[in-house]
Write a structure and sequence with these properties.
Pantoate--beta-alanine Ligase, Chain: A,domain 2, alpha/beta, single chain, 20% strand, Rossmann fold, three-stranded antiparallel beta sheet, binds pantoate, six-stranded parallel beta sheet, 2 domains
Length: 289
């Protein structure tokens, strides 16, 4: 496994892999790797000939400076993780390499805005977040021209934003969604889980349980408003949890499903909560046939 720190070296190496007619699989990450990332890497390893993992804590997607500062970073452990999973190359640039002109208001960098799907929920509670994500992912696609790129369904709205960006801007890459990996108690794996205190960690699976309650309600034939209430009721039982949103949405547009819509097929129940100063998101797909 080779570690690249510069765009020029990474590009040169990818050109060599392409010369050997290898298909390229890309797994973009911000490090603090866990089994959720492991699932992305395993899938990339199965499906492509040359696997590149990027590790870059992207400053432009954090709307709160404290969240950016507290984001866990441990490159040595992450590299060992990638090596174990048979990754071929890791691209881990610093911020200067990715944003050489800096990130000052006076010299704004060009950015990618994915209209519509970015506007609600995560987009509303984290202003500018999806512009930062879409921009850095577009840059990574240009630096590592991959055939397939792997993203976790845990960040379902991010996945929808990236899918729309790729479709609308004709990026020649196939986006591969990979199901959420959960702890035995249901908590979705996330780098932010590391920041939970033992008490908060004990309470955190309530988020998944609330999504399950809402899903059960929908499967039982309830409308989306009743399902939402069932999810919120489950969360209200935990006074330590502050809810930002819990909604039933269209999985491609992230628009709410109209309560009287009789033709809904696949929906996603999405939620964001705070436990102390840690923000957790999770979601569940539900098929109504
Ligand atoms: O999901 C993440 O880890 C990040 O948002 C991503 C896609 C690597 C962009 O920085």
């Amino acid at each position: 496994m080779i570690l690249f720190r510069t765009i020029a070296e990474m590009r040169e190496h990818i050109a060599l892999a392409r010369g050997h007619r290898l298909t390229i699989g890309l797994v973009p990450t911000m490090g603090a790797l866990h089994e959720g990332h492991g699932a992305l890497m395993r899938r990339a390893r199965e499906e492509t000939g040359y696997v590149v993992v990027t590790i870059f804590v992207n400053p432009t997607q954090f709307n709160r400076p404290d969240d950016f500062e507290k984001y866990p970073r441990d490159l040595a452990t992450d590299l060992a993780f990638c090596e174990r999973l048979g990754v071929d190359a890791v691209f881990s640039p610093d911020a200067k390499e990715m944003y050489p002109a800096g990130l000052h208001q006076e010299t704004p960098v060009a950015s990618v805005e994915v209209a519509g799907v970015s506007s609600r929920l995560e987009g509303e509670f984290r202003p500018g977040h999806f512009r930062g994500v879409a921009t850095v992912v577009a840059k990574l696609f240009n630096i590592v021209p991959a055939d397939r790129a792997y993203f976790g369904e845990k960040d379902a709205q991010q996945l929808a934003v990236i899918q729309k960006m790729v479709t609308d801007l004709n990026f020649p890459v196939t986006i591969v969604p990979v199901p959420t990996v959960r702890e035995p108690d249901g908590l979705a794996m996330s780098s932010r889980n590391q920041r939970l205190t033992p008490d908060q960690r004990r309470i955190a699976p309530a988020l998944y349980k609330a999504l399950c309650e809402a899903a059960k309600s929908i499967r039982g034939g309830d409308d989306t408003a009743s399902a939402t209430r069932a999810g919120l009721r489950a969360l209200a039982a935990m006074p330590e949890i502050r809810v930002e949103y819990l909604e039933v949405v269209d999985p491609a547009t992230f628009q709410p499903i109209a309560q009287d819509d009789q033709n809904i097929g696949d929906v996603r129940i999405v939620a964001a909560v705070w436990l102390g100063d840690v923000r957790l998101i999770d979601n569940l797909p539900v098929s109504i046939r």
